[in-house]
Structures are given as structure tokens and as C-alpha cells.
Target: tRNA (guanine-N(1)-)-methyltransferase
Amino acid sequence: MRFDIVTLFPAIFDGYLTQSLLNKAIERELVQIHRHDLREWSHDPKHNKIDDRPFGGGPGMLIQAPPTVECVEQIDRECELPARRIVLTPQGKKLDQRLAEDLATSPRVLLMCGRYEGFDQRVMDILEPEEVSVGDFVLNGGEVAAMIVIDAVVRLIPGVLGDELSNFDDSFSRGNRLLEFPQYTRPREYRGHRVPDVLLEGDHQRIAAWRAEASLTRTAERRQDLLSEHSQTDPKTDS
Ligand code: 6GU
Model:
């Protein structure tokens, strides 16, 4: 799977590309990441400027349409793989596990990172990207949001995680739309807090039942919204 990242700050991704699970996935050629510096597409050869003030006034600067559109079109000309085009913006559809799973089936995802007040509207009108947000808060730019998207997607690509089943039980994954149950490792007791007996007894049916119950309780306490979704999609646990 290939990611193209269009950004004014390609260096923001340096540590992420070399210090994470992604690095192994890249070495094993499961994932390719191509960064594209928007400034190289500037129509202003003197200062490489790609932003300007909004017509009609108002604070901040906008990323101009021509460099952005031409950059994306050039990337697409150079790569035969069809791409999902995504603009990272707080105005977008909120990223969730379902969208991550869907993106993981695409051979290529092109991520456009905004800064300042975002892109000139004609970028959206001409390139018709999907608009994706990572949550109801405002970031200084789309780069961190793009890393979130990549991080959520790459771990779903077959072979990227060590154990093929290790993302199946995750909160929100296909196998589980509930929050995860609590987990414990050694020591069995720490500062008076004991690991629940059921987990130490080796009865796998009882352990599975305890975990299902703990998932449900935790979700009820923290995320009622997921519980109503869960009972709609999985009538087995609808009691
Ligand atoms: Cl995708 N971009 C920015 N700049 N802020 C955000 C966001 C994206 N998602 C939530 N806040």
C-alpha cells in the first residue's frame, strides 16, 4: 500500500517514519510513503510562497489552489495506482475504525495536509477529495492528523502486525465494537491490587466470559454511544 503526503512541512514526519512500527512495514515493502513538498509547486519562484490572504477579509492565510492542484495531478500522473484523495480538515467526516478499515483496502491513499486557515475552496471543488477530521478539536495543521490516519490504517494491512489476530480484539475493530477489557501481567499482586482470580485459573471459557462482561461494563460506564451501536449490529449480545 502506498501513501502520498502533500505537505508544507515534510520533516514533521521524519521521526514517525523511522521510529515506529511503520519503519518495519516500509523495510518489508508492505508500505510505501512518499512525501511531497508543496512549496516546490509554488508559482512564486522568489519566495516559494504558496499561501495568501482570503478574499473578503478575515484572519489567517489560505493555501492557494494552483500549487496544490498541480502537485496532486503530477503525483497521480506518475503513479498508476488509483488513489483515495483525502484532505485533513476539522470540517471533515470524523475518522473512525470503519473508515480506517475501508482505507486499508485501497492500494493508495493521498493525504493533503492543510496549515493556516486551510485550502482555497477550489482545491476541494477541482480535486473532489474526501474531507477527514480526527476529532472535534483544532490542530495547527493536518500533519499530525495525517500521521493518525496512517497509523490507524497501516496496522490493518495484513502482515504489518506480528500476530495476525492481535488487532481483532482491539476496541472498535471488526471483531469488537466495544471497548477492550482490562489486562494484567506479572506480578500477581502489586500494592495490594490483585489480578482477578479468574484470569489465573486457566479456564478459558470462564476467562472469555469474564472478558466479555468486563468489556460490556466498561463500555456502559464510559461510552454509552457505542453500546447502542453494538446492540444494533450484534443481536447476540442484546439482552
Ligand atoms: Cl484533520 N486538521 C486540523 N488542522 N485540525 C483538526 C483535524 C484535522 N481534525 C481535528 N482537528
Remarks:
- The longest strand covers residues 84-94.
- Helices lie at 14-19, 21-27, 65-78, 97-103, 121-127, 142-154, 204-222, 224-233.
- The two ends are 41 Å apart (CA to CA).
- The beta strands are 2-7, 32-37, 51-52, 62-63, 84-94, 108-113, 130-133, 189-190, 193-194.
